[in-house]
Amino acid sequence: MIVFDQVSHEFRLGTTHLAALRDVSLSLSEQRIGVIGANGSGKSTFVRMINGLIKPTAGRVTVDGLDTDRDGKAVRRRVGFCFTDPDAQILMPTVAEDLAFGLRGRGLSRDEVTVKVEAALAAYDLLGYRDHPASLLSGGQKQLLALASVLIIEPSVLVLDEPATLLDLANTQRVQRLIAQLPQQVVLVTHHFGLIEDFDRVLVFDAGRVVYDGAPQAAVAHYVGLVR
Ligand SMILES: Nc1ncnc2c1ncn2[C@@H]1O[C@H](COP(=O)(O)OP(=O)(O)OP(=O)(O)O)[C@@H](O)[C@H]1O
């Protein structure tokens, strides 16, 4: 369960204070949660607070009772985060090494790591790229690798910040099917409404506030109404 209790976040740049999130209170227990809204409305700030990447300047965020500010390390073990820009999270030289990286320090044998890496390569159509330099993959392949590298560590909550911006039609559908099958809770930020059409709950952000919270179709209609 993810809980936001009267949470605000203000970015401070010199003397300028920018309120990116304003007094958000929510409990998120559903399996599939979508987050939509205009550019700059606070979506990334909101989801980055779920794993403590951004801390509240007021209020409190907890994941399964763990405070993202006080218990950041434990929260990050629980919450996998996939960034919009895959280059921000591809850390190792080759595709296979990048997949294996997150498994280090988890007490797995070398063989167990190999089995998991091979399964991920197969699942994401990257078998031919095992020893390929990760930096030379196409944009969409990098996005798939970034997603695979997060899922391989089996987090109990998965936060995806626009995971399909660089994907072609087939890979967007692949990611959509994959998300549908995941056992864990997923919080997904997107401008692609198709990705959230079957979700349990969709939040609409506007100017740092949640202005709608409900079923996907009604949420999209509310957002479209804001733009008109
Ligand atoms: N590191 C930062 N420092 C200062 N201001 C920031 C920072 N990150 C975001 N902001 C500002 O906070 C506000 C909310 O940004 P955020 O990235 O959360 O929006 P978003 O809804 O995810 O937008 P988009 O759809 O464009 O990705 C914006 O006005 C943005 O300029």
TrEMBL record:
Keywords assigned: ATP-binding, Nucleotide-binding, Transport
Transmembrane segment boundaries: none
Stored Gene3D superfamilies: P-loop containing nucleotide triphosphate hydrolases
Keyword match Nucleotide-binding: yes
Annotated ABC transporter domain residues: 2-227
Molecular function as annotated in GO: ATP binding
InterPro entries: AAA+_ATPase, ABC_transporter-like_ATP-bd, ABC_transporter-like_CS, ABC_transpr_CbiO/EcfA_su, ECF_ABC_transporter_ATP-bd, P-loop_NTPase
Domain of life of the source: Bacteria
Pfam families xref list: ABC_tran
Family, similarity comment: Belongs to the ABC transporter superfamily.
Protein name: ABC transporter ATP-binding protein
Source organism of the structure: Nostocoides veronense
